[in-house]
Amino acid sequence: MPEFMDIHHGMTGITADQLMEAHQADLAIEGEENVHFKKAWADPKSGEVYCLSEAPSAEAVQRVHERAGHKADEVHEVPLSV
Amino acid sequence: MPEFMDIHHGMTGITADQLMEAHQADLAIEGEENVHFKKAWADPKSGEVYCLSEAPSAEAVQRVHERAGHKADEVHEVPLSV
Question: Which of A30, A51, B45, B63 is a Cys-bridge partner for A35, taking CB atoms 3.0 to 4.6 Å apart?
């Protein structure tokens, strides 16, 4: 299954609880799109949030994020990793 | 040890071998800055490369990347993760 990194800008001040809630909202519905969100990292200072997922397509990743209430600003397939 | 996500833009067309070489160049010298690059992901289409590291500071991350010949465009501390 392809991997994707998606980015949310503007999440300045995000807390650990808010990140967890957002991630749980994705996990609750991801199965309907055959997506799995594996990990997320946040920088409350700059407001950047990065999510790593496995999914059939970038569109499927975005659909889950949109339905969970937090559309991503960028979704990139990352076919290479080390 | 704090975690960091750094981003390189403009790496369009990067290959698996090139990503591995760049990562190895970081690993070869990272110890001198007490940095450890844990993982890297690349999107050859958009040219985005993401590196996850543990390091004492963003400056230490950047010094390793610069000495290895590939300065990052952004380095963000990511104190939150799920």
Answer: A30
